[in-house]
Amino acid sequence: MTRFEQPTIDWAALSPELVLLGGASLCLVVTLFLPWSWRRPFCATVAALCFIGAGVAAGILFAVDDSARSVIADAIQRDRLAELAQILVAGSGLLAVGASLGWERQERSRVGEYYALLLSAAAGMSFFVAASNLMTLFLGLEWFSISLYVLTAIAVESLPSLEAGLKYLIVGSFGSAILLFGSAFVYGATGAIGFEDIAAAAGGADRLLFVIGLALILVGLAFKMSAAPFHMWTPDVYQGAPTPVTAFMSAATKVAALVGTMRLLVTAFPTEARLWTVALAVIACISLAWGNLAALVQTDIKRLLAYSSISHAGFLLIPVAVGTRLGGRALLFYLVSYAAMNVGSFAIVAARERELARPVTFDGLAGLGWERPGFGIAMSLFMFGFIGLPPAGLFLGKFYAFSAAVDRGWTWLAIVGVAATVLSIYYYAGVIGAMYFRHSIEVRIAPAGGSPPRDWALSAAVGAAVVVTVGSFIAAGPLLDIARESVSFLGFPH
Amino acid sequence: MTTALILVPIGGALWVWITPWKNTRGPGGLALLLALVELALWVGTAANFDFGRGGLQFQTDTVWFEDLGVSYHVGLQDFTLWLVGLTVLVTAAAIGYGFWVGRERPGAYLGLLLFLEGAVIGVFTAQDLLVFYVFWEAMLIPLYVLIGVWGGPGRLGATFKFVAYTMAGSLLMLVAIIAAGLSAGSFDLADASRHQSVWIFLGFAAAFAIKAPLWPFHGWLPDAYRESTPEVAAVLSGVVSKAAGYGFLAIAIPQFPGAVSDWRVPILVLASIGLVYGSLLAFRAPDLRGVIAYSSLAQMNLILIGLFATNASGNDGALLQMVNHGLISAALFLLAGAVERRTATGQLGLLGGMARGRPMLATVLITTGVIALAVPGSTAFAGEFLILNGIFAQGWGWAVVGAVAIVLAAMYMLRLISAVLHEDVGSAVPVEALDLRPAEIGVIVPLVAVLVFLSFWPAAITDHALQLFGGLP
After folding, report:
1. Is A407 in Cβ contact with B163 (below 8 Å)?
2. How far is CA B195 from CA B56, B140, B250, B271, B449, in A?
3. Which chain B residues are closer than 8 Å to A395 by Cβ?
């Protein structure tokens, strides 16, 4: 009989997840004993504090850890890459809480579950980005995915929300299944599940099995990052889900999926780098083309932003695909402002939605820039930023991503990115045009009765997103140092 | 000092935007004041500028991120000083005009003009390729909103065309900048070794050719110039197009000597076609703005011919002509605005006979027009003469094309003058239409006065900007 050896548990490495999970339990349990009117402020406060706590915990770990190590029986990697990603996820969550506060007014009955799921999704993502074997990778993926499936469908009286939840569940499970299938192949070929063990065993592995496994894992991850041609769920889910959920999902899932993918490929599959760099470059090109072309014809803003998110999956894959240290830095720097801009722009859509009491289309944005000057300027900043214009940090992110491609000798990939950017001008500039070039009277949209209630939490979230967006442009130097330290220990293949 | 020149208008723009104005004259007054402060700042800079020394002066160099060797590096050279001077003068006139006309939402409007001013000055002074690119793109944002919100009925199409053309060019430039910077290991202009790559040169050339615009990349120009307000058109044609000339002069031509000599003939051919084509279209255009727009196209192509002569005379002429054309087209667009305000049309067929009883309008328009058609003794004549002299060294054929175009310039300018001022009184001209008002005189006459001053002493510029040009092949 083999003796089961209990691993030593590094509780510090798990602290961000534990804080988030603790908050989730508090929301679920304590809410039951609170009067109705206390539930929303209580849960939002707990959620906000837990996101801050998780961010601070990850930040402390970032400051303390100057080397990478595997902990808890090599299931979890404790390093700065994971910790930076956890900070980004926690930040997105905090901003999403700001965007949720006003919306919860109509959804009082499920307030505890809502915040608990938000926290638990973030915990799953934090776990996922730190995963260092195929089992924890899959566990983390399912953990945050299942939370997100339920969150998408949480507005049960709204048909689009239910429909989106169901779609996300089916397509997402399909993606997870493929990932699991691929993991099985890789395990079969190498007999290992730890990332580093896989790399070590790759030499003696059955090449065919190994490569099929890698391909299936890539497909499964591409589902999560909504890269074309595995993006089919994205527009429907982003459009149908409650807007604050979309805000969180679009930002945090991207961070988790891309960081996880980069870690997996670089650590576990350096021997197959020639394959996956090209495969990712192809996926990036397809996403850029598909996302941007489809976005051109959208009228619903949430759907438009969904296609924008697909196209950004392409931009974000460029630095991963090149497989260089510069690429790793570019990815992390890009994600900082991208996450902030995504939450911010969906938060503004949410505000407009509450004001109009119906989905926001181009017509629905008419006059927004003049009626709500703050939101107008913020949205313009985000849209110009998505194009890649200063003063948004994303401009430097794109600059870095293209630099990484040129540096690798893949100038053609940078040129594809440039061509996609040119296409994207049409719809991003169209959003700004809709806000400023027309008046709300012209298209006869009726705001849903009087001036909207001042939603300070949402405004604060948008303000914070603006600060991060502009701040990452001005303070690019220190931020890039952080990004450099985060990827310094990864052994990039090129 | 250079940073102050950039930050005063940009910070001023923020100030104008965020102040909750009660008084409708408030934002205009503040914006005009800031524009005049900027003008004074430039005069102070020019007075302290050491023209004999050459090289960069009033530099600031701070590391932005050392990862790829990017730093916030700005500074003034002798020839950029003149382009910055053009910018501050024309923008002050444009803001003054916009204030006087009383645009809707004056805070946003005039703030955007100030922001644009800061971005253009940033383009002229940036010494780091990435900083240059940041300012280059920053010019686009205010222009997009300025044309899209305050423009004429066809503004949506005009803005889209403008943005799409400009961004297509500038993104190619971004790839070129990345390639150039990575191969040199630094994005600083001074560190950049002379590159051999034709592709990198073409990336830069694409952005500059579209912005200038070089024929046949001018598709955005007629709409943008016709649909924007007169003061925005003045800044657009007077100042923003000069950023392209500057790009060729300071980056594309000196950094890529090999590619320039390979591509000189094709570019000169396109510029020659553009010069003649623009002049002919200006002669046939049915409206005031059309004449000015196409004449701008022609003049910018003439400037490109001077730049691609790549010798001292051609480049001196091009620089002088950039300043001349900036002042001329700004003055003409503001005058066109004045005429359109009085008659509610720019159609030349409906105008005419406005000289009678309106002596100021007639004097200012004729003075500007005569300088624009390069009458001997005018500063435009000096500029064009230097350009032709310079291009003669590359082949007499180019000089012949240039000379023909000068004749065409006389034709379209005289047609414009007589169609507005002389002939029979047009059906759209009301009898009670006033002469230029004092405020209009106040913004337009300084531009014309500088032109007259330069006509007497063009060497004010050409003798104080020789440092760069000595070293070129």
Report:
1. no
2. 22, 28, 14, 24, 42
3. 134, 137
Q: Is the minimum CB–CB distance between A486 and chain B shorter than 8 Å?
A: no
Residue A424 contacts B, CB cutoff 8 Å: no
End-to-end, the C-alpha distance of chain A in Å comes to 46
Q: How many CB atoms lie within 10 A of CB A327?
A: 28
List Cβ neighbours of A208 (8 Å cut-off, separation of 6 or more): none
Residue of A213, A239, A232, A224 lying closest to A176 (CA atoms): A224
Lowest-pLDDT range of A113-127, A141-155, B67-81: B67-81
Residue A236 CA: distances (Å) to CA of A303, A344, A351, B241: 7, 20, 20, 44
| Inter-chain touch A403–B68, beta carbons under 8 Å | yes
Whether the bond into A452 is cis, omega within 30 of 0: no
A482-487: long-range contacts (C-beta < 8 A, 24 or more apart)?
A482/A62, A482/A84, A482/A332, A483/A84, A483/A328, A483/A329, A483/A330, A483/A332, A483/A333, A484/A329, A484/B67, A485/A80, A486/A79, A486/A80, A486/A81, A486/A83, A486/A84, A486/A328, A486/A332, A487/A81, A487/A325, A487/A328, A487/A329, A487/A332
CA distance B329 to B322: 10
Q: Report the half-sphere exposure of A36 (CA within 13 A, side-chain side).
A: 6
C-alpha of B53 from chain center: 27
Record: contact A421-B134, CB cut-off 8 A: no
Q: Is the pLDDT of residue B472 over 50?
A: no
ipTM, two decimals, is: 0.86
Q: Chain B: which residues have CB within 8 Å of chain A?
A: 63-68, 105, 130, 134, 137-138, 140-141, 144-145, 148-149, 155-156, 159-160, 163-164, 167-168, 171-172, 174-175, 178-179, 181-182
Tokens 């005018």 appear where? B378
Query: Residue written as tokens 């209580």?
Result: A42
- Is A477 close to B168, i.e. CB distance below 8 A? no
Confidence check: pLDDT of A446 > 60: no
- Mean pLDDT of the region B147-174: 86
| pLDDT-wise least confident of A110-114, A198-202, B181-185 | B181-185
Give the closest residue to B376 by CA, choosing from B457, B461, B455, B460. Answer: B455
Question: Hunting for tokens 């998780």 — which residue is that?
Answer: A54
Output the DSSP codes for B169-231. HHHHHHHHHHHHHHHHT--BTTTPPPP--HHHHHHHHHHHHHHTTPTTS-TTHHHHHHHS-HH
* Domain locations in chain A as residue ranges: 13-487
- Our measurement of the distance from residue B360's CA atom to the centroid of its chain's CA atoms, rounded to an integer in Å, reads 26
List the Cα angle A46/A51/A53 in 5-degree steps: 90
Name chain A contacts of B137, Cβ cutoff 8 Å: 389-390, 395
Q: Give pTM, 2 decimals.
A: 0.90
Q: What is the pLDDT of residues B42-88, one digit of tens each?
A: 999 888 888 777 778 888 888 888 778 888 888 888 888 889 999 99
Q: Is residue B290 pLDDT above 50, yes or no?
A: yes
> What percentage of residues in chain B have a pLDDT greater than 90?
24
Task: Give the helix ranges, DSSP H, for A296-392.
Answer: 301-322, 325-356, 362-365, 368-371, 373-387
Domain ranges of chain B: 256-473
Burial grade of A108 (CB within 10 A; 0-12, 13-18, 19 or more): exposed
Rounded distance between C-alpha atoms, residue A208 and residue B151, angstroms: 63
Q: How many CB atoms lie within 10 A of CB A454?
A: 9
